[in-house]
Amino acid sequence: MAKRIKRIKKGVESLREEVDKHFLKLERDIEEGNLDMGRYHFKEIDKSLLFALENKIEFPKVSNEIVEFYRKKLDKLRVKLGLDKAKKL
Asked: Which stretches within the chain are classed as H helix?
């Protein structure tokens, strides 16, 4: 079981790195005014990466603060993209 938890923690770190990369791309797209690509990166973070991160974190009972931090950051960028929460991408 220890190997499995270690592997899952490595997976969580890998996902966090991937989320950070997409946040950088999203912020750069917003600054450059490339809103279509920004929406793509937003959707990738919101629908795919954070969902996978939540699932990985649930198994070893690691703190959910990581996902909450990213959700808050994503909500701030949602405003810059001009997206409503209720609006589907």
From this structure: 2-32, 35-43, 50-58, 65-81
**DSSP 8-state class, residue 49:** I
Angle at 21 between CA 18 and CA 24, to 5 degrees: 155
CB 57 within 8 Å of CB 66: yes
Euclidean distance between CA atoms 74 and 37, whole angstroms: 15
CA distance between the termini of the chain = 39
Name the more confident of 2 and 26: 26
Tens of pLDDT, residue by residue over 43-60, are 888 888 888 887 777 655
Length of the chain: 89
